[in-house]
Amino acid sequence: MKKVLVYLSVSIILLGLCSSCTNTNGNQEENKVESIDYENAYNQYSESFTELNDIEKMDIDENLTKAVLYYTDSEGYLVPVMRQVPKQEGIAKSVINALINNSENRIDLRETGLKPHLPEGMEFELALKEENLMRISFDDKILTFSNEEEEKTAVQAIVYTLTEFETVDKVQILVDNKIVNTLAKGTEVGEPLTRGNINSLNNLPQGEYVKITLYSYNNTTNNYTYYIPITKNIVKDQKEIQSIVEEQINLNKEMGKPIPEGLELVSIIVEDSTAFMTIKNQIETKDENFERFMKAICLALGQNEEINSVKLVIEDQDVNNMEILTFSVPIFANVYE
């Protein structure tokens, strides 16, 4: 991955969010799925790639449009991924179908280490109502999760994925076209749901606090590093930008992610849309751990809309050896074709 990350101008084209608002899992689709030799596909899969989460590797196809889907990883975290999907009517139905944990979708994601979270064979209907409300009615497969955590994660994946569309602000989940207060394991769905507090640490500091988004990451396939948004509450501070960087470094430590050896933060200031992050000591800047560390820093700083680039200033006793590295703030954490 190059040190200078690039912007992607995202324009999700909504072509009839829920035309023919039923999930079609008919014989034609079943035959198509059964014709794929999934075992062979796995066996032939090569791990020769090194990094696929790179916008420069995405081929832009005019017949496709962008959509953001929320998958889960092996630790149960929700992970947003920007995908290219066919331009078509009923695109909302298409993205929910992509969240169903069937063989075809698992094969599609095999390089990422992520998985779709909804039960195989699930059927649903969609209807876009007034005030940007999307109603989605599932069959009783929505009641088959083994525990509350899995059930809650599935609901969040549905809500986050649908509210990525500009015309959807909230989601009402129904079972067999009926409003229920809770699902089988206790997840509350009686009222329309909105997005917020993704992968929250649920910490409550004393006094006035603000919510920030930090980023962990994983690479379980040696091909794809995915970044995980983590919501944390921190004490409100006049030096909020520096606090974000300090909290990001602390999160790396807590989650066992490498930090450049010898790194010592001196200051961080913002000038003309650029965050200048000054550190002491020379550090290793040529390996993938540094690249991942800096992308997480850039993503965390990117929640401040004023910041669109980061300059890492590495101080040295000899001023002539001072090093400055420039990074653009990525507009999205994860991209996968």
Automatic annotation (TrEMBL):
<dbReference type="Pfam" id="PF10646">
    <property type="entry name" value="Germane"/>
</dbReference>
<feature type="signal peptide">
    <location>
        <begin position="1"/>
        <end position="23"/>
    </location>
</feature>
<protein>
    <recommendedName>
        <fullName>GerMN domain-containing protein</fullName>
    </recommendedName>
</protein>
<dbReference type="InterPro" id="IPR019606">
    <property type="entry name" value="GerMN"/>
</dbReference>
<feature type="domain" description="GerMN">
    <location>
        <begin position="92"/>
        <end position="184"/>
    </location>
</feature>
<keyword id="KW-0732">Signal</keyword>
